[in-house]
């Protein structure tokens, strides 16, 4: 038990100019706090919204655990923990896609929508990993394939079936859907910047000076916590209206 507490609460010294280590630590703490908030708030909602809040908590909790390991990896080896990062993403990004399905169920969303978004997100991540960690000399090509999968997701939620379902639901669901769409369009766009900052290609002169891990860490914290807060706000708003009607 003593060793476990030492592992959990004693941290290696962080240099004042180690912005990568700092963002790993802050990201871990922020997402752990968000997880606690989402999990403890579940009892405030009925069954219809509990699953959405649970998924939000799982997203930030999984990320927090991985960030703890990634932070230690960075301190021990001074290298980007690419493998751990993609393991985190392969678990959390599909869950973020599940959130679209869960909030659109009230408008009749089918599981085929959920599985399509999950499949596209896996393609996006697997090809991204190949370009960043396996076939770095062809990073631009794998990044292109990853980007195509990303833009198909953007199309589906902004202009495709998901948008039509959100419009049919209207009200708070439509508002939440639009906000999540902006997170995907703008927030997820941070990741290609990090990808290009950490891989060789024609874009070296544009993004070569950026710290890849800092970009990824900031993007993760904003997107994962932000996604959860949007879903939480939807649950609060919808539950309040349901209480008024009853």
UniProtKB/TrEMBL annotation:
Topology with respect to the bilayer: Multi-pass membrane protein
Transmembrane segments: 20-40, 52-69, 89-107, 114-134, 140-159, 180-198
SUPFAM superfamilies for this protein: Family A G protein-coupled receptor-like
UniProt keyword Transmembrane, yes or no: yes
Entry-linked Pfam families: Bac_rhodopsin
Protein keywords: Chromophore, Membrane, Photoreceptor protein, Receptor, Retinal protein, Sensory transduction, Transmembrane, Transmembrane helix
Location of the protein in the cell: Membrane
InterPro entries: Arc/bac/fun_rhodopsins (IPR001425)
PANTHER family referenced in this protein's UniProt entry, alphabetically: BACTERIORHODOPSIN _OPSIN, NOPA (EUROFUNG), PTHR28286
Family to which this protein belongs: Belongs to the archaeal/bacterial/fungal opsin family.
Name by which UniProt lists this protein: Bacteriorhodopsin
Highest classification ranks of the organism: Bacteria, Pseudomonadati, Bacteroidota, Flavobacteriia, Flavobacteriales
């Amino acid at each position: 038990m003593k060793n476990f507490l030492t592992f959990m609460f004693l941290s290696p010294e962080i240099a004042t100019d180690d912005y990568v280590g700092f963002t790993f630590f802050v990201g871990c703490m922020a997402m752990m706090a968000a997880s606690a908030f989402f999990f403890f708030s579940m009892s405030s909602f009925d069954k219809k919204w509990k699953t959405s809040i649970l998924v939000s908590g799982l997203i930030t909790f999984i990320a927090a655990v991985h960030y703890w390991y990634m932070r230690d990896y960075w301190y021990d080896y001074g290298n980007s923990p690419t493998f751990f990062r993609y393991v985190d993403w392969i678990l959390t990004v599909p869950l973020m896609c599940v959130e679209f399905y869960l909030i659109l169920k009230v408008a009749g969303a089918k599981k085929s929508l959920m599985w399509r978004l999950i499949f596209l997100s896996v393609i996006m991540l697997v090809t991204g990993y190949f370009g960043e960690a396996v076939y770095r000399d062809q990073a631009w090509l794998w990044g292109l394939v990853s980007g195509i999968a990303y833009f198909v997701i953007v199309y589906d939620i902004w202009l495709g079936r998901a948008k039509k379902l959100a419009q049919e639901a209207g009200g708070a669901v439509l508002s939440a859907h639009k906000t999540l769409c902006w997170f995907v369009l703008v927030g997820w766009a941070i990741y290609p910047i990090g990808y290009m900052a950490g891989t060789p290609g024609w874009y070296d002169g544009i993004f070569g000076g950026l710290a890849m891990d800092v970009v990824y860490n900031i993007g993760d914290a904003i997107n994962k916590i932000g996604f959860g807060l949007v879903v939480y706000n939807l649950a609060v708003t919808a539950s309040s209206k349901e209480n008024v009607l009853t």
